[in-house]
Structure formats: C-alpha cells, structure tokens
Amino acid sequence: MAEGRREGPDASVDQLARWARMSARTFHRRVREVHGATPLQWLLEQRVARAQTLLEATDLPVERVGEESGLGSAANLRRHFTRTVGVSPTAYRRSFTPSGPPSRAR
Q: 61: buried, middle or exposed (CB in 10 Å: 19+, 13-18, 0-12)?
C-alpha cells in the first residue's frame, strides 16, 4: 500500500479506504493482515517515515516538517516522532548534519 504514496499528508483512514475501493471495515481488516497494524497505526508510521526523510534531506523548520508529513504541527511531530523513533526530531536531524564548521579544501 505504501508504494503508491497516494495517502498524502492530509489523508484519513476513510479516504484511504475509498481510494482502495473498499469499505472501511474491509480496509481495516486487509491493512491489519498485510501490515500487522491498524490503518491508523500504519498511517502514523508512514507520516513519521516521511518526517524522517524530510529531516534527513531538507533544512525545513520542524513546524513545516510536521505539516508536510501530515502530522499537522511541530507539537504533534515531536510527540509522535519521539515515541516512534526514540529521539526528538531536532536530535534526529543533528545526526544527519555534519558537526563543526565546514572544512576548506586547499
């Protein structure tokens, strides 16, 4: 299901079920069978994964990462990201940022 990335940042579980052309009940059952999680848990995992990608590859402010990933706000991003990944978004980003001043090639 993640392959199509049709969920978009504002998608709800009901929208995903409609896009999959399934009833909400069937969608819930199928997602659970395939991913071992409820649709809401799966969607949250996808949003946190998107936030990870944005934190690794961009210098967007945390508030914008929250919006772009579908988590809505910086507070929501921090709460879900820290619970899922185990570190804050800022600490996670730091691990992908070179420390110290850039070296100058001579």
A: exposed
Cβ neighbours of residue 34 closer than 8 Å, sequence gap 6 or more? 1
Cβ neighbours of residue 12 closer than 8 Å, sequence gap 6 or more: none
Q: Are 46 and 12 in contact (CB under 8 A)?
A: no
The burial of 83, by beta-carbon neighbours within 10 Å (0-12 exposed, 13-18 middle, 19 or more buried), is given as exposed
The pLDDT tens digits of the residues spanning 56-89 come to 999 999 999 999 999 999 999 999 999 999 999 9
Task: Mention every residue, 6+ apart, whose C-beta is less than 8 A from residue 85.
Answer: 48, 52, 92
